[in-house]
Write a structure and sequence with these properties.
Elements lengths: L1 H6 L3 E5 L3 H4 L7 H15 L15 E5 L9 H4 L15 H11 L23 H17 L7 H13 L5 H9 L3 H20 L4 E9 L3 E9 L15
Parallel strand pairs: 1-2
Antiparallel strand pairs: 3-4
Helix pairs in contact: 5-6, 6-7
Length: 240
């Protein structure tokens, strides 16, 4: 790789997931350790004899990326090999809207799709997470028999990712029949407390969702959103 770079200088060399070959664990394995030593030697000898390290005509700029900088080998990241570090964080609200637009540009969207309403439910999402969300929503819409992706499809995928499972109304009724009335009352009172909190703290918007799972287990999921993006508070009544 570096020999090709020297023949084509000036150039860039980019390696993604560099921790796979330059992590601290590499020294514990003979093969990985040999690869790491070769990489370190190449970084120090990239310019060869008689070449000016600061010459733009002979420059080879080595760029690498990792999600685990703390796992990189100390010899690899020392000055002279890796001179600068640049942190690229997760996308903010505005950037997430733009990423939604990029990954949905080739998909059929219904008129009710509004990415701005999804911003505060995707806090902490990376670009890859948003791409997966859009793809899963497309798959779900096909399963529902839709020709387009609706807002409800995206929200259902978010609920499934957050809670791990979603039941149909028929499955929910069967599960509730296995749970005593007293337990259902306790769960209903608990969820009603979320509504009370939403009333006492109007700055927050609460989206509460509850359902009973097989085996008399309960699943509760609560979103606390700093900005009011839903006009209604949703709670599923467990006591008829």
């Amino acid at each position: 790789m570096f020999s090709i770079a020297r023949r084509n200088a000036p150039c860039f060399v980019f390696v993604d997931e560099i921790d796979a070959i330059a992590g601290r664990h590499a020294r514990k394995d003979p093969r990985e350790g040999q690869l790491l030593r070769l990489l370190l030697h190449s970084l120090m000898g990239t310019f060869g004899e008689g070449k000016n390290r600061v010459s733009l005509r002979q420059a080879i700029i080595f760029i690498c990326a990792t999600n685990r900088p703390d796992e990189l080998d100390l010899e690899f990241v020392r000055p002279g090999r890796i001179d600068r570090r640049l942190y690229i964080g997760l996308p903010d609200a505005k950037q997430r809207i733009q990423i939604f637009g990029v990954h949905s540009s080739r998909k059929q969207l219904a008129e009710d799709v509004n990415f701005e309403e999804l911003v505060f439910r995707t806090v902490g999402f990376s670009g890859a997470d948003i791409r997966n969300l859009v793809n899963e929503a497309a798959i779900l819409s096909v399963r529902k028999g839709h020709s387009k992706i609706f807002q409800r499809d995206i929200i259902d995928v978010l609920d499934k990712q957050g809670m791990g499972v979603l039941l149909t109304e028929e499955e929910q009724q069967k599960c509730e029949q296995r749970v005593s009335l007293e337990k259902r009352r306790l769960l209903a009172v608990h969820e009603a407390g979320h509504v009370v909190l939403a009333h006492l703290f109007p700055r927050f918007d609460w989206h509460a969702f509850s359902q009973l799972l097989p085996g008399a287990r309960k699943l509760q999921y609560l979103y606390s959103i700093l900005e009011k993006i839903w006009s209604t508070k949703v709670i599923q009544h467990l006591v008829t």
